[in-house]
Amino acid sequence: MEQLVVRPGLRGLTGRFKGGGLRAAALVVIALLVLAAVLAPLMAPADPDAVDLSAALAGPGGDHLLGADASGRDLLSRVIYGARTGLLGPLGVVALSTVLGVAVGLSAAWHGGWVDAALSRSMELVFAFPGLLLAILVVAMYGPGQLGPVITLAVAYTPFVGRLVRGVARGEMGRPYIAAYRALGFGGLTICLRHLLPNIAPVILAQSTINFGYALLDLAGLAFLGLGVQPPTADWGAMINEGQSAVLQGALGPILVPGLAIVLSVIAFNIVGESLADHVSRR
């Protein structure tokens, strides 16, 4: 089976954490993130944008369970609301890159020949350019925001899915059921979408889950640089950027709270993704 793409630094980290207990913990983290994103108005104890200078850089406790930032805004509320941008952006990246990657990978595997060669070289060309660098160039041309980086990262992530789909599909096409459908007169599009794609869907799901964590990290990095989601919108990367000045005053909460949210989220998605990959390979 074609190897899933896992960044070296994360492979070494998450490789130690694939036991049943930690896999369940990762699923719990993801479930809590989804609940926070969906139910943010109900879960947040305060308005995430409410400024209270009298509580600036307040420590944990009292009205601010996790403390407050330099503007007196409640960190817990902002982290909860930040789950919305933290999940919606990567969801857009993964959805678009998966659709494009499946289309490119299946086309290359089914047609072979010069089509396969051309699409494979195209994916290698995209691989040659770091996704973050492309996103920074797009922001430089069109201005900061989330839409541009999401589309750019989706294009950059497409080869991760496309090369995997191509490899798995080429192996699957040698199976008897593909030849049987061809003999019955089914067209290539019908065979690919109705019969081939469902059989390789678990592998695609595993890679897409891992990609979700990467996209979350990349988008948070862009927001930290001031190139993604803009203040006062609650976003984890932007919160770390805003909290830098607080460190000089001895307050670590404004960067530790969103930083921990990012780290836990990325590790959780990687653990689940690699667990899915292990399950598929055993099958």
Automatic annotation (TrEMBL):
It comes from the Bacteria. It is found in: Cell membrane. It holds the Pfam family BPD_transp_1. The chain crosses the membrane at residues 21-44, 87-110, 122-141, 177-197, 209-229, 250-273. Keywords: Cell membrane, Membrane, Transmembrane, Transmembrane helix, Transport. InterPro entries: BP-dependent_transpt_permease, MetI-like, MetI-like_sf, OppC_N. It is a multi-pass membrane protein. GO terms for cellular component: plasma membrane. One of its GO terms (biological process) is transmembrane transport. PROSITE patterns: ABC_TM1. The keyword Transferase does not apply. Residues 87-273 form the ABC transmembrane type-1 domain. Belongs to the binding-protein-dependent transport system permease family. PANTHER family: OLIGOPEPTIDE TRANSPORT SYSTEM PERMEASE PROTEIN APPC, PEPTIDE ABC TRANSPORTER PERMEASE PROTEIN. This is ABC transporter permease.
